[in-house]
Amino acid sequence: MKYYDEKIETMSRDEMTALQSERLCSLVRRMYDNAPYYRAKMDAIGLKPEDIHGIEDITKLPFTTKADLRANYPFGCFAAPKSEIVRVHASSGTTGKLTVVGLTKRDIEDWAVCDARALVMAGCDRNDIVHVSYGYGLFTGGLGLHYGSELLGSMTVPASAGNTMRQITLLKDFGATVLACTPSYAMVIGEEIEKAGLNLSDFKLKRGIFGAEPWSEDMKREIERKLGIEAYDIYGLSEISGPGVSMSCGGDWGLHVMEDFFYPEIVDPETLQPVPDKTDGELVFTTLNKQGIPLIRYRTRDISALNHEVCSHCGRTLVRMKRVSGRTDDMLIIRGVNVFPSQIESVLMNIKEIVGSHYQIIVDRAGNLDTMEIQVELAPEVFSDEVRKIEEVRRHIEHDMMGNLGVGAKITLVSPDSLPLSTGKTVRIIDKRKQ
Ligand code: DLL
């Protein structure tokens, strides 16, 4: 099975533009009539629904931000009557209130289609056994992949996150062929399999559907090696629709956006002006088909780039977005230098004496100077080595970090298994400057 929906996934640019234009015009009308907060934004600049004739007019429309969702907590941004909402999800940001979204029956069906398409992009079909270790609940990861996998017709195991040894037993006994979880949890599962002395040949795993947090190419290779699988990147956010907003096909440039549902733009985060293809900027989405909580020009804070060329790997015409390496707001500025956690991870993944996926970044200020400490777990076999050897490892990391980040970091090596483990999204950064 090459495509889930060949017509949409290989549509010509002109046809896609026509579809998006039609959907945008009807969305703007609906929002104007049913979403008072957005109507107020349009009124403030004197914009009427009839001023929007097609997707080319999208830049006339005001942006929406997380602050709008927070100000209208919990249900004030819904554009459908509460009687039509059949499910809510929510995500907790790093600060403040939950962001709540409401879905109608059709929203859930559309979402399942996105995830079914995503699974097929990764090479899955109805013969697969899909083990879902994303959390089930208010978080969108578990239920999103779950519905997509069922729609595809694959046997679906709703394992949810946690209790790693039990997960491993289920993976082995049920013969799961696909594992869906956060990349950091995939690393934990891989490490536990190694520690338990289990043989990969006792498992039938072939593919992994990993997302919900930034992860580097190096981490991808490490997960592939540890679990003997091919790892695919899945992207999404609750505000837009959870996992399946975009998905990698295994090609080497980016993730295909389900652009008949979600219209992507990249803007300069300072000027908010659109940037050319393949140029980094802030990713902005408009939900073209949603009913419960449609959003127009929602600023994701994620950094990406777009590429409209037809994909030579899979033949899809769906626009690609570059894998998200960080957010405009998890970017650390250390003594004026911009640092992304993904850069730190890349350095760590190439050092064999440590467990590269277990690290924590602590940022503080001493006097007027920013300080950055990176705590990393030593590999168990190195932990028992003599102090001189361990000090050498520490210096080596410090040196590589300086070379790659352009700013110094204090490296602290800690004993194996001493940093907090994550079964979902990992908290990597403790920024004491903000406390
Ligand atoms: O994380 C939805 C999801 C679940 C995606 C399972 C993929 C798999 P939120 O909790 O609302 O939703 O968090 C959304 O997570 O804005 C990104 O910053 C980050 N993120 C999600 N997927 C990726 C990815 C889910 N593949 C926020 N790469 C987004 C990098 C990602 N960052």
Measured between the Cα atoms of the first and last residue, the distance is 51 Å
Strand order of the largest sheet: 4-3-5-6-7-8-9-14-13
Low-confidence stretches: none
Radius of gyration: 22 Å
User: How many strand segments?
Assistant: 20
Fraction of residues in H or I helices: 25-40%
Number of helical regions:
12
How much of the sequence lies in strands comes to 25-35%
Q: Which structural class do the helices and strands define? A: alpha/beta
**What small molecules does this complex bind?**
5'-O-[hydroxy(phenylacetyl)phosphoryl]adenosine
Shape: globular
The overall average pLDDT, rounded, is 94
Structure write-up:
By secondary structure, the chain is an alpha/beta fold. 32% of the residues lie in helices and 25% in strands. It has helices at 6-9, 13-34, 36-44, 66-71, 105-121, 140-152, 164-174, 183-195, 217-227, 341-349, 380-383, 387-405; strands at residues 85-92, 98-104, 129-132, 155-157, 178-181, 207-211, 230-237, 242-248, 255-257, 262-267, 281-287, 298-304, 306-307, 320-321, 332-334, 337-339, 354-366, 369-378, 410-414, 429-431. The strands form 5 sheets. Strands 4-3-5-6-7-8-9-14-13 form a 9-stranded mixed β-sheet. Helix 5 (105-121) crosses helix 6 (140-152) and helix 8 (183-195) runs parallel beside helix 9 (217-227). The protein starts with 5 loop residues before the first helix and ends with a strand. The structure holds 5'-O-[hydroxy(phenylacetyl)phosphoryl]adenosine.
